[in-house]
């Protein structure tokens, strides 16, 4: 009997000790940041509600930036969207089983984002911000530094319900959230996030998005088409780094969209079939992408020329001094000039070796 009581007391005591230990176990950095972000979300959207999938589930650039700012210590330089969705988006949305856009407060789409999940998330976020700032400027918004945050983007990892991906994809491509968003009628264009290797254009679903972008551009004059975005700026605005633009252009010059891959073979077969059925097929699609990068490079060249001219104008007061310095450097004593001419003549005639003797 006493042994039974001791056993019961032992179990209760062990449970108490385990409870105390659990209570005072320090949180990991990820757990701490998740709790911090959940508190912030409750302040701005205390009662999240589901909404129709598609174009009404966009997130604002400012919301994305706050997400990145909160989790930056975890994301750092190298972590990708795969990490972000599995370790951050899924835990945040677990209790309600909704998309992150619905959790933070959804918005009507302004721009559709085409991207590769394997790209650095930091690169992705900075590219979105550069695009948002460019769009604000193009809208003649003098206060773009403050208002870039209001640009709304449909991003599959944040706009799709990751707990019900099958519904988001739909039973056919016409029912997918991707297609519904692009063809909603009020989407301004497609912002493709590019790294140096132009990885989105090696993925079949990104090819599908480019195809829809081309077809919408052909029939809808207000649609702004495909914009190529990097962490240094938007190529179509002439603001990206020249070295980055040249590397991307070099990559695209040899890229064949028909070589794009997909995780599921039937997805690739479906997308390849769609491209083949359009006028011109893959040749037309490859030409569309190459025209986009060519136009972007021309704008880069124009922007560089304008900036260069402005810089030279600002240095106008030093032109005379520079010319004088060059003249002084070029003047040499007559004897030195004569010796150099003789040396050159002997070298050209083969009378003297151009290389030093051992």
Structural class: mainly alpha
From the structure provided, what is the oligomeric state, counting identical versus distinct chains?
Answer: single chain
- Cα Rg: 30 Å
- How much helicity do the residues have? 55-70%
Taking all residues together, what is the mean pLDDT? Answer: 83
Question: What is the helix tally?
Answer: 16
Strand order of the largest sheet: 1-3-2-4-5-6
Biggest beta sheet attributes: 6 strands, mixed
- Secondary-structure element order, N to C: HHEHHHEHHEHHHEHEEHHHHH
Low-confidence stretches: 340-358
End-to-end CA span: 104 Å
Number of strands: 6
Task: Choose one word for the global shape.
Answer: globular
Question: Beta fraction of the residues?
Answer: 5-15%
How many domains? 2
Biased composition (Acidic residues): 325-343
Region (Disordered): 322-358
């Amino acid at each position: 009997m006493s042994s039974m009581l001791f056993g019961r007391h032992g179990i209760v005591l062990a449970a108490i000790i385990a409870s105390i230990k659990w209570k005072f176990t320090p949180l990991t950095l990820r757990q701490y940041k998740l709790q911090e972000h959940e508190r912030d979300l409750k302040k701005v959207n205390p009662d999240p509600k589901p909404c129709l999938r598609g174009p009404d589930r966009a997130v604002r650039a400012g919301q994305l930036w706050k997400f990145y700012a909160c989790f930056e210590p975890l994301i750092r330089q190298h972590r990708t969207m795969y990490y972000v969705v599995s370790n951050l988006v899924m835990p945040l949305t677990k209790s309600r089983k909704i998309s992150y856009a619905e959790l933070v407060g959804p918005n009507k789409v302004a721009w559709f984002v085409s991207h590769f999940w394997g790209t650095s998330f930091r690169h992705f976020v900075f590219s979105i911000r550069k695009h948002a700032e460019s769009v604000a400027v193009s809208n003649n918004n003098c206060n773009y530094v403050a208002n870039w945050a209001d640009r709304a983007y449909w991003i599959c990892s944040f706009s799709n319900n990751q707990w019900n991906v099958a519904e988001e994809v739909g039973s056919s491509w016409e029912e997918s959230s991707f297609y519904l968003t692009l063809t909603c009628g009020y989407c301004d264009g497609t912002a493709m996030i590019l790294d140096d290797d132009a990885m989105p254009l090696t993925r079949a679903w990104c090819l599908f998005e480019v195809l829809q972008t081309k077809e919408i551009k052909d029939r809808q004059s207000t649609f702004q088409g495909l914009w190529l975005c990097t962490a240094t700026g938007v190529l179509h605005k002439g603001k990206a780094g020249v070295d980055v633009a040249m590397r991307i252009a070099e990559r695209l010059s040899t890229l064949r969209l028909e070589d794009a891959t997909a995780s599921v073979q039937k997805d690739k077969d479906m997308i390849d079939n769609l491209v083949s059925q359009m006028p011109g097929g893959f040749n037309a699609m490859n030409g569309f992408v190459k025209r986009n990068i060519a136009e972007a490079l021309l704008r880069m060249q124009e922007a560089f020329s304008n900036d260069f001219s402005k810089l030279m104008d600002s240095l106008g007061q030093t032109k005379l001094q520079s010319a004088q310095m060059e003249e002084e450097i070029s003047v040499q004593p007559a004897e030195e000039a004569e010796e150099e001419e003789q040396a050159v003549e002997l070298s050209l005639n083969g009378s003297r070796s151009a290389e030093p003797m051992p």
